[in-house]
Amino acid sequence: RHVGPLMWICLAHSASYFDSMKISKQEEDSARRYGIFQFSNMEHCSDGCRSSLNICRTQCTNFINDDLRDDIRCVMKIIRADTGFDEWRVYGVNCKGKNLARWIQGCTIVKPWDKWR
Questions:
Q1: Which of 19, 35, 53, 115 could bond to 63 as cystine, CB 3.0-4.6 Å?
Q2: pTM of this prediction?
Q3: How far apart are CA 59 and CA 47, in angstroms?
Q4: In 76-108, which positions are buried (b, 16+ CB within 10 angstroms) versus exposed (e)?
Q5: In the sheet where 23-25 sits, what is the strand order?
Q6: 34 forms bridges with which residues in the sheet?
Q7: The pLDDT value given to residue 11
Q8: pLDDT mean values, one per 10 residues, the chain (117 residues)
Q9: Does the keyword Disulfide bond apply (predicted)?
Q10: What's the chain look like in SS3?
Q11: pLDDT, position 29
Q12: pLDDT, position 2
């Protein structure tokens, strides 16, 4: 599945406004979400406080720093599953099917994420 830079940029902005230290709590399911991509403590990581599927096999606190390598590896695991980026509701609302070219106007794009595949 192709994962281009526009999808990543839009997801990071929509999930956390590019805040790699963000921790939030969802009202509807009381889940906590961590980091730039807002990983759930019920599905993606473990916070040690509640049962989790822990799809990414890591502690949630590992996602609240500026080293995004583990965050990117976790996103790749999630999008390789059936749901892809649709796992994130904010992606469907803000990114899917939208013209995302505005995110990179005037930028030179390199592809560092290829080494994390």
A1: 35
A2: 0.84
A3: 6
A4: eebbeeeeebebbebbeeebeeeebeebeeeee
A5: 23-25, 32-34, 39-40
A6: 23, 39
A7: 93
A8: 76 95 87 96 93 95 96 92 82 89 76 58
A9: yes
A10: CCCCHHHHHHHHHHHHCCCCCCEEECCCCCCEEECCCCEECCCCCECCCCCCCCCCCCEHHHHCCCCCHHHHHHHHHHHHCCCHHHHCHHHHHHCCCCCCHHHHCCCCCCCHHHHHC
A11: 75
A12: 53
Q: Return the pLDDT at 110.
A: 65
Task: Pull the structure tokens for residue 64.
Answer: 């609240």
* 30's tokens: 């009381």
Give me the residue spans of the domains in the chain: 5-112
Identity at 91, one-letter amino acid code: Y
